Amino acid sequence: MLVSYKWLQDFLELNKDPYQLGEKITRTGVEVADVKHPQEGLKKLVVGHILDCTPVEGTHLNVTHVDVGDEEPHQIVCGAPNVAAGEDVIVALPGARIADNIKIKKGKLRGYESNGMICGLQEIGFADSVVPEKYVDGIFLFPTDADLHPGQEVFELLGMDDYIFDFDITPNRADTLSMEGAAYEVGAIIDEPVKVEDVALKADGPDWTDQLKVQVDSKLAPKFYLRKIKNVKIGDSPLWMQARLWNAGIRPINNVVDVTNYVMLLTGQPLHTYDARAFESGQLVVRKATAGEKLTLLNDHEVDLDPNDIVITNGDQPVMMAGVMGGLNSEIKEDTTDVILEAAIFDPTLVRKAALRHANRTEASSRYEKGVNYDATMRALNMAALLLRNDADGTIAEGIITGSDKKQESVTVRTTVSYINKVLGTEISSSEMLNIYKRLNFNVEVAGKDLVVDIPARRWDISIPADLVEEVGRLYGYDNIKSTQPVLPETRGGYSQTEDVIRRIKSVVQGQGLIEAISYSLTSSEKAVTYTKTPQPLVKVQMPLNSSRSTLRQNLLTGLIDAAAYNMARKQNQLTLYEQGRVYDFAGDTYNEHEHLAALYSGNVYWDNWQHENEQIDFYFVKGQLANLLLAIGIDLNQVEYKAETISGMHPTRTAGIYIKGHYVGLIGMISHEITNVNKAMNGNEIYGYELNLDEIIPLIINPKTISKAAPKFPAVDRDLSVLIDQEVTNQEIEDLIKANSGKYLIKLRVIDTYQGSHIAQGKKSIAYRLTFLNRKDTLTDEVVTKAMTAITDCLQDKLKAEIR
Amino acid sequence: MDLFDRLNKLREKGLAEIAKVKNEQTLNEVRVKLVGRKSELTEILHSMKDVDPDKRRDIGKQVNKVRDLFNHNLDNVKTEIAKELAEKQLEKERIDVTLPGRATHVGSKHPINIILDDLEKYFIGMGYQVVQGPEIETDHYCFEMMNLPKDHPARDMQETFYIDTEDLLRSQTSGDQARVLEKFDFSKGPLKMVGPGKVYRRDDDDATHSHQFMQMEGLVVDKNITMGDLKGTLEMMTKHVFGQDRKTRLRPSYFPFTEPSVEMDVSCFNCDGKGCAICKYTGWIEVLGAGMVHPNVLENAGIDSKIYGGFAFGVGLDRFAILKYGIDDIRDFYTNDVRFLEQFSKEER
């Protein structure tokens, strides 16, 4: 809502600096996003009277002589199509500043001297959207009846000497979507009484109430009043009214439509005028639209009406989308003589949804959706009728047709001074509080300790004591409330145990050089279950923004692979990324969220370097990093098992499921060629990653207890063991056997070499292990170690047909 | 020749020879020649039997002196040579310490999480528990319990991602308030919590809108919590994040779950309140919304609003990060360009 400072002066004594007032309103009532002074930066703009106007042959230009109040008229060359002798216009004199800080100088055009410029409204800073249609492509012509003289500054005439506050209104303060409401608010803030005039109307035409049969569903329109104004003469509104409209951001149209907009700005009550010819049927019905009905609106858009749109019909066809916009078939035209004037209240939700549905939010609909003042409807109707008589020479027909007239119960709220002080943390006296309510024009009765406050209908946002606390708090001034800290018994702050572990995990992987990413939880249905061992029922949103953001992810890798594609397309092939976040599914007929961790690696271990020492990231590098992570968070690596598995999106022969104590906890592997090959940027890159379900892992490691052991006093003994074995046998199987048969002193088992190739038989491979034995209590004898080794080799030969080398 | 003369000559010659030695091999040859078993010195010693016994002692003394001198000088030369060798070796080992090391990516935290961690730590220090709730939330907790009426615009299908008629992707973390309030046992002390997490709104992604972002909710409830407490708490927090020299102001605002409701602005840290493009020439930057918990929210959770009251606040973590780091496109947080993310490694605390 754009609120005019000068218009406010109609209601209250106001002489504060507008900018300071804006700041005060912001801190006390409604955020003032901006204070504009339209004439700011402009100068030497005066009224000129065009004495003569001669076309320059072969051009669109005219040479004019303009009386600007000087002794001699100025010769000015003007290219506007509507320049003509006898008109009063805006002249920028030499030395003037117009919009965009442009300076006007004397000049020559086609050999003709031009001492100034005749201006259109846009040239002096008006927005296109508020300039009257007929002046959009030309210069502005003052109305012939305007009270002005050549040489007079134009600013006051055009309302440009005003200060315009941009009220950024929260939904509860729709009462300030009117000048009267704004005046009450500003009056309360600066402690000045507000005068709002009542309307006394005497009709001067015959009764019309039997001319129209009106049928209104009061659920759709709780209030619905009509008047008829006859014999209007369509023309321009007086300049002062046009100025108030354009300062409020509304384009002047004609003296009928302008009146409805003006009264809406004044009272907050949207109004509508119909050409009476639209109701020649003698009927007016307010109802919901039926499927298939169409209506062409005033903006020339034909809309397919929805069964939840409210429409006004003439009994036969819709003539208006109620609360949103009129129909072209009932529009006020040049030749309109009789006008039906409507002041009504429509259901806020239905109006809001209609405006949203048809993408057509209007000044009227935005007011209806936030609620309007039930006390203003009748007053607005009569005020508009009076103005139509005044501005358009109409005759007001006797009588009002009332289609519906729901009354609103008056609201009274009880509270106490001590409650208000307790919530605010203040010590405001009761007299000070009573004064604040007086400033707001609320009637208060003091009943013992209670304050009984009558809430006027214009403040429909107030209904409970807490609302009254807010009124006192803001008018007392939030700046005046002392800042304190809550005085409370001590509480222990902290994270949940789970969150603590997650933070530990994140710090480890960050230490490993991984960069944290955050991806969107919503992805495509396909990606939601790629890289997922056991896809669960999907969770989809009902109205996705697009199909690539339709389904909640069941894995994090998909987001990291999207990130890899994005980065690789920008030549960033050296990637180490991780994400910690949730995945979502609908398993077991309920919505589930699980904390996951995923990492993605691609490129080399190091950046390219002058030593040419590098190592391409491969499965085993990533597996080593993962093992370090697990070790760092307290997982016994002996309990971790990797099983080759086939999982969608993952390389079928380079992927493993990860199991801890037999439970599946995640996967590790290379991203499949199918995924990387189809993406030009990713093609040829080997991308590795792992993903862990932290919900499975965290319970295993909450509260890890380390009981310290002294460093060993006796030396450990290393023995190497080289095994020639069938290719199909996995390292895991060999290790399992070694561990199971090694006796009690084996503390470490490492693979130190593998070989497969021409030096050994086909179908065979060789693996070498280093076994470390330690007896914490005594020196290990050769005999004991040899015995253990023999047990191991016997078993390997026996169970796996291994050949010991 | 007199043995003394011979000895003197030998001494001069020997010392000259030692002085000429340049390497270990000649050193050994010279050593054998001068002090070895077949050296002239030994010879002199052996020929002493022909000498007058009176002089024999003197000569013996002299011979030993010369041998000691030879040995001493030979040792010196040996040390010299070893030192030279070592120096040569070290020179061979010299590297250019200014050449770069082998580098890897430096790990880093996401900028939004840097802001979040900092705020969490701040509030934990003040005795707040960090509580997290579900992102798939019910209409009941997200809206109904938070005093948003059925026809509230936020409950439109156009605004919020509904999964079915009752379940949705939460559009605010406020649902965590309702969940905690419902279960909280005030006999064990006051409630102080912050609840961070992801939220979702049906906005098309552009430079200033994101369909997914991060919020943090704060809630303090007990018997005597005042708006002054809210003001003090918010002032300290915003100064912690944006600088101790910032000014703040509270403005009336509106949220269904608080009454009174306020928004807090901080004086623009770019222009210090003079007005610039960042603060849209107002001198102020809006940073958060807050208010006193609406009585309906307490009553909905079964808490007597005549006895208990409190304050709540919500901060947009994306917004904090945008302001703090001067980021001009919210999508930068979610495209995960490593060149964007990496710059925050130094912010890690």
Could you describe the 3D structure shown?
The complex is a heterodimer of chains A (805) and B (349). By secondary structure, chain A is of the alpha+beta class. Chain A has 19 helices and 40 strands. Chain A has a 7-stranded mixed sheet with strand order 28-31-32-36-35-34-33, sandwiched between helices. In chain A, strands 3, 4, 5, 6, 7 and 10 form a 6-stranded antiparallel sheet that branches. In chain A, strands 12, 14, 15, 22, 23 and 24 form a 6-stranded mixed sheet that branches. In chain A, α6 runs antiparallel to α7 and α18 packs across α19. The radius of gyration of chain A is 41 Å and the shape is elongated. In chain A, 41% of the residues are buried. Chain B is of the alpha+beta class and 349 residues long. Chain B contains 12 helices and 9 strands. Classes of the chains: A alpha+beta (805), B alpha+beta (349). Chains A and B meet through α2, β2, α6, α9 and α11 of A and α5, β1, β4, β5 and α8 of B.
How are the SSEs placed, and which strands pair?
The complex is a heterodimer of chains A (805) and B (349).
Chain A: E1 2-4, H1 5-8, H2 18-28, E2 31-36, E3 43-55, E4 62-67, E5 74-78, E6 88-98, E7 102-103, E8 107-109, E9 112-114, E10 117-119, E11 164-168, H3 179-190, E12 205-207, E13 213-216, E14 223-230, H4 239-247, H5 257-267, E15 271-275, E16 283-288, E17 294-296, E18 302-304, E19 310-313, E20 318-321, E21 325-326, E22 339-345, H6 348-357, H7 363-370, H8 377-392, E23 395-398, E24 401-405, E25 411-416, H9 417-424, H10 430-439, E26 443-447, E27 450-455, H11 465-476, H12 497-511, E28 515-516, E29 522-523, H13 525-529, E30 551-552, H14 557-568, E31 575-585, E32 592-602, H15 619-632, E33 640-644, E34 650-660, E35 663-671, H16 673-677, E36 687-693, H17 694-701, E37 717-726, H18 731-740, E38 746-755, E39 764-773, H19 782-800, E40 803-804
Helix pairs in contact in A: 4-5, 5-8, 6-7, 9-11, 18-19
Chain B: H1 3-20, H2 24-35, H3 40-46, H4 53-93, H5 111-125, E1 129-130, E2 136-138, H6 139-144, E3 167-169, H7 175-183, E4 191-200, E5 212-222, H8 227-242, E6 248-255, E7 258-267, E8 284-293, H9 295-300, E9 309-316, H10 317-325, H11 332-335, H12 338-341
Helix pairs in contact in B: 1-4, 2-4, 5-10
